């Protein structure tokens, strides 16, 4: 996935790049742009090519990493929901009790637990730099 943005700050080996909001952001809400009226977001990117403040750069995040991040954020909670419903179904069948509402609530609890676990592992994932953007090309200088 490639994005073009403006370098607004540089610290050590990182560039902070302002990226304009796309129409798809309105429905995604993963980074918070879809929930706000902001027209741009500032992302931290690895700056191996030494882009400077004011440069217009192209960022890259490898497609398999984007898919893995999407699976972590959306797939794991969905699987947890389904697992919770299945586990409660098996337990209720064993005790000869049937409550769809209880099965749904158990599934939602499993899903909430998965969100908490993902949130607890988030700092470790950020340290790995696997899901970090990288500045791959300087397109030019900003006129502003």
From TrEMBL:
- As given in the record, the signal peptide range reads none
User: Does the UniProt entry include the keyword S-adenosyl-L-methionine?
Assistant: no
Where do the TM regions start and end?
66-89, 101-121
- Which key words are in the record? Membrane, Transmembrane, Transmembrane helix
Per its UniProt record, what Pfam families does this chain match? RseC_MucC (PF04246)
List the InterPro entries hit by this protein, alphabetically: RseC (IPR026268), SigmaE_reg_RseC_MucC (IPR007359)
Superkingdom of source: Bacteria
Q: What name has this protein been given in UniProt?
A: Positive regulator of sigma E, RseC/MucC
Species for this entry: Acetoanaerobium sticklandii (strain ATCC 12662 / DSM 519 / JCM 1433 / CCUG 9281 / NCIMB 10654 / HF) (Clostridium sticklandii)
